[in-house]
Write a structure and sequence with these properties.
With 358 residues, the chain is an alpha+beta fold. It has 3 helices and 12 strands. The radius of gyration is 51 Å and the shape is rod-shaped. The protein starts with a helix and ends with a strand.
């Protein structure tokens, strides 16, 4: 075949391929969620329950850490809760006693007030008696001077007057004593009311202490639960790097769980290829490991930035000589056909995808 004819055939082939309505790239890989397994506490590994490439389910125990110190912390927290609750009961008991004291002091004040009324009545009666005896005393004194009364009669009247004066002093002294008792009783009431208020504050603080102790207990139990390191999801154990007796620290990678169910494709298309690509378009997927099997998929989403923008050292074309390079846009493609056990898919496998744009 002549070279000219060959060139025409190649050009025609390229032309019809470009017009076929497909966009194809082999710059694509399988992706899956790979969850790291890391400890949340510092401890010693007691037992490792899994091996590399072992299938696990979410919640399965992978590693057991030494929990002795954390069990002690839980016990101490439980004791602190019990003590805090006992303090609440004691504070409430003290408040009850203080309230009883207030009632008793108030009753005593009422009783003294009642006695005060009686004492005042006694003072008034003593004043009336003294007034009568004083008048009789003056009358008999005049009669004695006129020789119309005997000395004996005058002495009896004088004695009654003196007795009335003494009785009035006693009644007035009783009034003063009752006033002092009332002041003392009021002071006692005020003091007991202050004690009640203080007891209320003590109850509030004791109840807050209970909440704090319960919070500490929950934190201690949470720390204890971290001694059981479980699988974050379904998948396959990968990159296992932990042994029995190993001392581990917070954030140290022990292994990873690679999801073997939810797998998708990230295809890096040239920016000149995505003009007619849309979400939902059908995709033909060929995995390099299984050349005899065609998988079906669909376009799910497009990256908002090119791959170079996410590189460790992204290019800055404004700082030097500019060389235009066609950029690539990551496109996420989901499988639409069911998983086939005969063709297991693994993250990182190379694939070739063809998007039907028409």
């Amino acid at each position: 075949m002549k070279p000219f004819t060959t060139s025409i055939l190649i050009a025609a082939s390229i032309f019809f391929t470009g017009c076929s309505g497909n966009e194809k790239t082999d710059n694509a890989q399988l992706e899956a969620n790979i969850s790291p397994v890391i400890p949340k506490i510092n401890s010693t590994v007691v037992k490792v329950f899994v091996d590399d490439n072992q299938a696990v389910k979410e919640g399965d125990t992978l590693v057991l850490l030494d929990d002795a110190n954390y069990k002690i912390a839980v016990q101490q927290a439980e004791i602190a809760v019990a003590v805090a609750k006992q303090n609440v009961q004691l504070s409430k008991s003290n408040r009850g006693i203080a309230s009883s004291s207030v009632s008793s002091a108030s009753a005593n004040t009422s009783a003294i007030a009642a006695n005060m009324s009686s004492a005042k009545a006694g003072v008034e009666a003593a004043k009336v008696r003294l007034d009568v005896t004083t008048k009789n005393y003056q009358r008999f004194k005049n009669l004695l001077e006129q020789k119309s009364a005997t000395q004996q009669q005058f002495d009896g009247i004088k004695a009654e007057k003196d007795a009335a004066e003494a009785q009035l002093k006693i009644a007035e002294s009783q009034i003063q004593s009752l006033n002092k008792q009332i002041d003392a009783s009021k002071f006692q009431v005020a003091t007991t009311l202050s004690t009640v208020a203080s007891s209320d504050n003590g109850i509030g603080l004791a109840e807050l202490s209970v909440k704090q102790a319960e919070s500490n207990l929950e934190a201690a139990r949470l720390q204890l639960s971290y001694c059981f390191i479980t699988a974050p999801g379904n998948g396959i154990i990968s990159k296992k790097n932990v042994q029995n007796g190993q001392v581990v620290s917070v954030g140290q990678p022990l292994m990873a769980v690679a999801d073997n169910q939810k797998i998708w494709v990230v295809a890096n298309f040239k920016e000149t290829q995505i003009e007619k690509m849309r979400v939902g378009q059908e995709v033909s997927i060929t995995v390099d490991a299984y050349s005899d099997k065609d998988f079906k998929g669909k376009v799910v989403s497009f990256s908002q930035a090119t791959g170079s923008k996410f590189s460790l050292l992204p290019a800055d074309n404004a700082t030097g000589n500019f060389v235009k390079v066609t950029q690539r846009i990551p496109v996420k493609i989901a499988f639409t056909d069911a998983n086939d056990a005969n063709y297991p898919l693994r993250s990182g496998m190379s694939v070739t995808v063809k998007v039907k744009t028409k």
